[in-house]
Design brief:
The complex is a heterodimer of chains A (about 280) and B (about 375). Chain A has helices spanning about 10-30, 50-55, 60-90, 95-110, 115-125, 130-135, 150-170, 175-185, 190-200, 200-215, 220-225, 235-245, 250-280, and strands at about 35, 40-45. Chain A is mainly α. In chain A, a hairpin with a 6-residue loop joins strand 1 and strand 2. The radius of gyration of chain A is 23 Å and the shape is globular. Chain B folds into two domains: about 10-240, 3-Layer(aba) Sandwich (Rossmann fold); about 250-360, OB fold (Dihydrolipoamide Acetyltransferase, E2P) (Beta Barrel). In chain B, a hairpin with a 3-residue loop joins strand 16 and strand 17 (about 315-325). Classes of the chains: A mainly alpha (about 280), B alpha+beta (about 375). The structure holds adenosine-5'-triphosphate and magnesium ion.
Chain lengths: ~280, ~375
């Protein structure tokens, strides 16, 4: 059998990419137009007015800032919770423990977003088990729904499987014999982890964190359901713009701004990832 | 030949003492009761086929696997349940397990840094260790920038830099090509001798074990089948398994009687009992014969009668396959030179065995 020339495979790929890119371009173009007042239609001339309006709006500025802060918090929580889980899954001698973690993560992974959002509303609600327990001990109850706490918690839950499974692959790729070598040369379990596995897992940690950040920043469903209208992340603001005032050009402009803000940390981390893997991958060219 | 006791070894104190070591993984019994001693400065090889339990024994000594029962003592201290880092036993892994994010010097200095050795002292000792393995030119390189042999030497330098009580090596030369492997074996042996470092090396290569070790433990299916100095193991394997593993060409059915041995109907007089013979254990047995210890003569000189069935020229030697009257076959290897006649196929000959070793009956 003759091998298919690899170059032929580029055409379907280009077609798909082209389609996506065309959609994005059309979107960018729309962001320069103006709504015809009272309709869902829009017309020229092209200007940057929608961008200026967005940056002038305190609501939009607050949503953008809140979204960035919450996404960073969520990423931080994913690192704190997810690293130990990924490490245990990669290295625990107990098969039961490894399977248990995997099972819980996969169940999270597979249950739909709406299901999980309502589950969180029940768990965190004023009459839910968490507050029930606090009341039991005579402690003041905490409001965790219809505010940022609930939104952040549910999004952490959502991004955790992605984070852990990405990092797991990276830790698994570090031979366990490296830690054993460290220990046989006098390092305690902790020192071996600190000196060997942790630095070698940094590139994987960066990838997993980027993924968590990207997923967090584009959250829509969880702020909508658990924010009770009080928490507006940027995606929700864009949605409102379309739903309540049919202002497609303004929504497009906000989406373009959002895209840039979402891409900035990714680009920045990608830049230092090069030097990280040079430092931690052991090759210096 | 009688076993000459190694007097020097007896005078030296025991570094490592293992007794009754057992380990199972689920329902697999990997190690079934292993006991051995290693003298200070001695080097012992664990030799055996794949899956016989060598690595498991070594990992229990290093502290990476916990024995089900038995004890391990190092320099008189019981280390059976001690954490690996508290044993002062440095291990060299088959994959070398060099830290890829550290330079050669950082790798070698790792154990010293962990022990909080001062920077200046550390530098000196890193330098010394690197000089010993002739890697001082490569101190600032990363492991990925080294050849296989250089990586191997880095791993060795890292292990000796801490001056451990025990050096453990698991198939350390497995990934090297043949020439480099032989050079490294000799280098390791010299290094080990000059440092007087008690060493256990795991290998499945009998030649490697012969070159490196002053005592070899042949491991079969989780048990030590024979523990002897290399020459004795080579000349006088105790069991059929050891004989075959050590590459003995001929294992023959024979009948032993006081003062004589009968093979294929021919009886040979023996002036003293052969190696491995036990008083009162006469009768049918198996004997091991090395092809190079057997000579061929003309019929009637008093050996085992046979006919040359096949002849292979190996350059400096000729290998004959001699068929005996009862269908057994003996391989004989003789020196060949231009002026020495070789024997043609079909010639009737007499096989004169040397270095006869009586094997223990299979358990
Ligand atoms: N972690 C483990 N879990 C289950 N079984 C194991 C484990 N380690 C070893 N074994 C089993 O124990 C037996 C001995 O293994 P070991 O690795 O000690 O053999 P080995 O002599 O080093 O072999 P090789 O020459 O192939 O390295 C094998 O049957 C192996 O399958
Ligand atoms: Mg092994």
């Amino acid at each position: 059998m003759k091998p298919v020339p690899v170059l032929w495979l580029i055409w379907p790929l280009l077609a798909v990419l082209g389609l996506f890119f065309a959609a994005l371009l059309r979107f960018a173009d729309t962001s320069l137009l103006q709504q015809i007042p009272g309709t869902a239609m829009f017309e020229g001339p092209r200007s940057l007015g929608n961008y200026a309006d967005t940056f002038a709006s305190p609501l939009a500025r607050k949503a953008l800032w809140d979204t960035l802060v919450m996404s960073l918090q969520i990423t931080g929580a994913a690192i704190v919770l997810g690293y130990p889980l990924a490490y245990l899954m990669a290295r625990s001698p107990s098969k039961f423990l490894r399977n248990a973690i995997f099972f819980v993560l996969i169940v999270t992974f597979l249950s739909g977003g709406i299901t999980r959002a309502y589950a969180w509303m029940l768990v965190l609600g004023n009459n839910g088990p968490v507050n029930g327990l606090l009341r039991e001990f005579g402690l003041p109850t905490v409001r965790m729904v219809n505010n940022r706490t609930g939104v952040v918690l549910s999004i952490v839950h959502f991004v955790l499987p992605f984070f852990v499974l990405t990092l797991l692959g990276a830790i698994r790729n570090i031979p366990a014999s490296l830690e054993e070598a460290a220990r046989s040369h006098g390092a305690s379990r902790w020192a071996a982890f600190r000196d060997v596995t942790l630095p070698l897992s940094v590139p994987g940690l960066v990838s997993a964190s980027l993924l968590a950040f990207t997923l967090a920043i584009s959250s829509f469903l969880f702020p909508l359901l658990l924010g009770g209208g009080r928490v507006q992340m940027f995606a929700n603001l864009i949605y409102d713009k379309i739903q309540s005032s049919f202002d497609m050009p303004a929504a497009s402009a906000m989406a373009m701004i959002f895209l840039v803000f979402a891409l900035l940390p990714i680009l920045a981390l990608n830049l230092i990832r090069g030097s990280l893997s040079r430092r931690f991958g052991g090759t210096r060219r | 030949m009688q076993h000459v006791p190694d007097i020097a070894a007896q005078e030296r104190a025991t570094a490592l003492r293992i007794s009754g070591l057992k380990k199972s993984f689920g329902s697999t019994l990997a190690v079934k009761g292993v006991s051995l001693d290693l003298a200070e400065g001695g080097i012992l090889a664990l030799l055996g086929p794949s899956g016989c339990g060598k690595t498991t024994i070594l990992r229990m000594i290093a502290g990476f696997a916990e024995p089900d029962s038995g004890t391990i003592a190092l320099n008189g201290r019981d280390i059976t349940r001690l954490a690996p880092e508290k044993r002062n036993a440095a291990m060299v892994f088959q994959s070398y397990a060099l830290f890829p994010h550290m330079t050669v010097a950082e790798n070698v200095g790792y154990g010293l840094k962990i022990r909080r050795v001062s920077r200046s002292e550390r530098e000196t000792r890193i330098w010394d260790a690197l000089k010993l393995v002739r890697l001082d030119q490569f101190a600032r390189r990363y492991p990925s920038e080294l050849s296989g042999g250089q990586q191997q030497r880095t791993a060795l330098a890292r292990a000796i830099a801490t001056r451990p009580d025990l050096l453990l090596l698991d198939e350390p030369f497995g990934a090297l090509d043949q020439n480099l492997r032989e050079a490294m074996q000799i280098e390791l042996r010299k290094l080990q001798e000059s440092l007087g470092l008690a060493t256990v090396i795991v290998t499945h290569d009998q030649q490697e074990a012969m070159i490196l070790a002053d005592r070899i433990a042949v491991v079969n299916d989780g048990r030590i089948e024979q523990l002897s100095p290399p020459a004795e193991l080579y000349d006088h394997p105790r069991t059929r398994f050891v004989a075959e593993f050590m590459g003995v060409e001929n294992i023959l059915d024979a009948v032993l009687a006081p003062g004589s041995l009968t093979v294929a109907g021919s009886t040979i007089a023996l002036d003293r009992p052969p190696a491995g013979a036990r008083p009162g254990r006469d009768g049918p047995c198996q004997i091991a014969l090395r092809a190079e210890a057997v000579t061929l003569g003309d019929p009637g000189i008093g050996g085992i009668g046979g006919t040359i069935g096949y002849r292979t020229n190996l350059g400096g030697r000729v290998l004959y396959e001699v068929s005996l009257s009862d269908g057994q076959m003996v391989k004989v290897s003789e020196a060949r030179a231009p002026d020495l006649p070789t024997r043609p196929v079909g010639q009737k000959v007499s096989v004169v065995p040397g270095g006869i070793t009586v094997l223990e009956p299979a358990a």
